[in-house]
Amino acid sequence: MSPAPTRSSRRTFLQQSAALSGAFILGIQGRAALAASAGAAPEVTHWVVIQPDDTVIIRIARSELGQGTFTGLAQLVAEELECDWSKVRPEYADVNEHMRRKKIWKDMTTGGSRGIRDSHEYVRKGGAAARQMLVAAAAQQWRVPAEECRAENGVVMHASGKQARYGELAELAATMPVPENPPLKDPKAWKIAGTSPARFDIPAKVNGSQVYASDVRLPGMLYASIRQCPVFGGYLKSHDDSEARTMPGVQQIIVSEDWIAVVAANWWQANQALKKVKAEWENAGKDRVSSDSIKAYLREGLEAASVPVARKDGDIAPAFANAHQVIEAEYTTGFMNHATMEPQTATAQYSPDRLEVWVGTQNGEASIAAAAEVSGLPMEKVWIHKMHAGGGFGRRGPHQDYTRQAVKIAMAMPGTPVRLQWSREEDMRQGRYRPVSLVKLRGALDEDGNWTAWQVRQSDQSIAITVYPNFVKDGVDQINTRVFRDNPYAVPNFLNEYMMRELHVPPGFWRAVAHTNNPFYRECFIDELAHAAGKDPYQFRRPLLKGKKDLAVLDAAAKAIGWDTPAPAGVHRGIAVVDSYGSYTAAAVELSVVDGSEIEVKRVVVAIDSGHVVHPNAVQAQIEGGVLWGLSAIMAEEITIENGAVKQSNFHDYPLARINVKPEIIPLLMPTFDFWGGVGEPPIGGVIPAMVNALFAATGKRIRSLPLKHHGFRYKA
Asked: Confidence class of residue 510 from pLDDT cuts 50, 70 and 90?
């Protein structure tokens, strides 16, 4: 059994750390009030805590989901702090304090590959401010000008030979004015950032001691299993739980508008009893919806007479009228589930004046807002204990359905901690899915095979309209039109049209979001144009990419895969370039096809310019993970709808790629040190189209819909 989490570690760290002699809490937002506990040391906002033994606690506002953010953000703070890295310990920032202090940690959202790229500046300033305050404290003690002192490796030194450890200076440093805009180091002078120290999150994950949300154990805790209306938008008409109530361990059965939960002494008992509950659901007229009817609905959008415009360059009409060749194609992809290793889970304990929730979340602010809304308690009486999550990929971001359910269940049993754990089947059938999409593309080529115009008409389900409506402008989803609307190709005439199609199936942010399906459409269609023009796909792209960074990563990927040299017999190559989440990437794939159906992916190259690189090994790991994510998605992953409900239920009918399909992966890190880009999602974008383009080279067959299993392909066993 995993060790129980300390229930007070998140909500009382201010008092506890201040109570330690010489504890030092600081940030860059200006002075906060004195700590609540009597006799506590002065409190300055909280990025860094320095204890008397020189331990440096760095508060992390973003969530660690396996991407290395816990370590990378700590590196950035420690770099500017000039502390001893061996004494650094990261901890999650307290969500309740964050809200009570008016979002003092800036942003607790972890998504969109923004963990480091959107917080690097202010966390670095937090470390730099701390260093200056420690130096000021030493200068005051020694009665010398601060300019004569310097900090290095957790020690402040003076030319006279005087030295003081950070732990000795912390209490006095906490009384120093907080620098508002401390200067930051040139990245070329980094000593901690830009290197690859051992990550903080890895050892516990390897030895099994990591406490995830599913490992929470509290005194007197009960367990809940839940069943929701199988048809999205439906509700419970009636139920019979008489048999379930007689089963071993059952404590309570809780009924909501669209779900039933059984609470028992352990989860297995709860889940077995839940299966005995007879339920009749009202499906709100959606039980006739199927994957086929959804496709027909998308086609209606594709063929609409008038469609909102996302982007318009030049005039496509005369360009198409005067074209030597016009190429047309339709591409489509289906719903995709996040399929996190850890199904959705949250533990809640409610009383009329206090609510505590233990949850693995990508967005602490969304979690506390959801818990407060359901409970009716003000946020200052809600405590979110952030746990490491067993996978996120966007599922644990704005969608806090499991948090809401856990709170409602706990409210029915005041004072008792209850852990809600979804079954794998519930997780599969109640996801927030990557939307379906149908796209029509037209391209014009002149007599010399030059690309003169293109038209893209998208018909898909909007994510933004249900989650971030401010991202919808004039009927255009600014998220779902990425890759087309912001494409890097210098084609003089371009029209991107977008038709929003709302569905009852709930959409969600799936790792890389539109940068998974739209690159497949765009980059494979560009290969079609290159083939029609009689040109090499790599060389066809080069003159159209006016951005130097796009061209650099494309050239690097091509060189690494050996594009300009003959491939071994039976081996074929594909290539693609995709910008996403502030970074520039290109991918090249080398594969063989055996007996016309078995695919063996041999090598995958991913080149990325993310501007800066904080932890090179973590970036390489994200590239490797992104490649495998893409290879899994492309082959067999698919959510289908039948009678209004999700048909798939577990990994037997939603299969993920296994380790035996892993090819040689070649990550190329190409930082230019002039911007900050994301890393977690960008590697995926180019892998899928590069592989499909390689399949065309191998088979002569154009693939315009995914997954590949529908075209008779499978990975070689």
From this structure: very high
Q: Which of 345, 336, 561 has the alpha carbon at shortest distance from 437?
A: 336
Q: How many residues does the chain have?
A: 717
Structure tokens at 715: 């990975």
* For residues 295-324, average pLDDT: 97
Q: What is the DSSP letter of 315?
A: -
User: Distance of alpha carbon 525 from its chain centroid, rounded?
Assistant: 27
**717 falls in which pLDDT band (50, 70, 90)?**
confident
Contacts of 325 (CB under 8 A, 6+ apart): 444, 445, 532, 533
The residue whose two tokens read 């690309």 is 451
Q: Which residues contact 287 (CB under 8 A, 6 or more apart)?
A: 231, 234, 643, 644, 645
462 pLDDT more than 60: yes
How far is CA 406 from each of CA 31, 344, 347, 498, 717, rounded to the nearest angstrom? Answer: 36, 10, 6, 38, 42
Terminal C-alpha separation, the chain: 36
Q: Assign 34 a pLDDT band (cuts: 50, 70, 90).
A: very low
Residue 110 makes CB contacts below 8 A (sequence gap 6+) with: 62, 63, 65, 69, 362, 363, 392, 397
- DSSP conformation class of 34: P
Give the pLDDT confidence score for residue 47 in this predicted structure. 85
What lies within 8 Å, CB to CB, of 576 at 6+ separation is 519, 523, 586, 587, 588, 685, 686, 687, 689, 690, 693
**Tokens coding 364:** 């602490």
How much is the pLDDT for 43? 38
Mean pLDDT of the chain, nearest integer: 93
Alpha carbon distance 396, 404 (integer Å): 12
**Both tokens assigned to 253:** 């059965």
- With 0-12 / 13-18 / 19 or more C-beta atoms within 10 angstroms meaning exposed / middle / buried, residue 502 is exposed
Task: Decide: 155 and 164 in contact? Cβ < 8 Å.
Answer: yes
The string of DSSP codes covering 197-225 is PPPSSHHHHHHT---BGGG---TT-EEEE
For the record, the structure tokens of 256 come out as 């909501």
The string of DSSP letters for 598-640 reads EEEEEEEEEEEE-S--S-HHHHHHHHHHHHHHHHHHHHT--B-
CA 25 from chain centre, in angstroms, equals 30
Instruction: Give the span between the Cα atoms of 115 and 145, in whole angstroms.
Output: 38
For residue 484, give every residue at least 6 positions away whose Cβ sits within 8 Å of its Cβ, in sequence order, or none: 310, 311, 456, 458, 496, 518, 522
Position 394: which residue type? G
Which one has a higher pLDDT value, 261 or 33?
261
What is the rounded distance in angstroms from the CA atom of residue 412 to the CA atom of residue 253?
Answer: 10
CB contact set of 587 (below 8 Å; sequence gap of 6+): 557, 575, 576, 577, 578, 604, 605, 606, 607, 683, 685, 686, 687, 689, 690
Q: Report the relative pairing of strands 56-60 and 88-92 from DSSP bridges.
A: parallel
What is the DSSP pairing of strand 714-715 with strand 598-609?
A: parallel
**CA separation for the pair 537, 528 (Å, rounded):** 9
- pLDDT class for 4, splitting at 50, 70, 90? very low
Q: pTM of the prediction?
A: 0.93
β strands within 610-716, DSSP E:
641-642, 645-646, 664-669, 714-715
Cα 236 from Cα 228, distance rounded (Å):
9
C-alpha angle 382-386-392 in degrees, rounded to nearest 5:
125
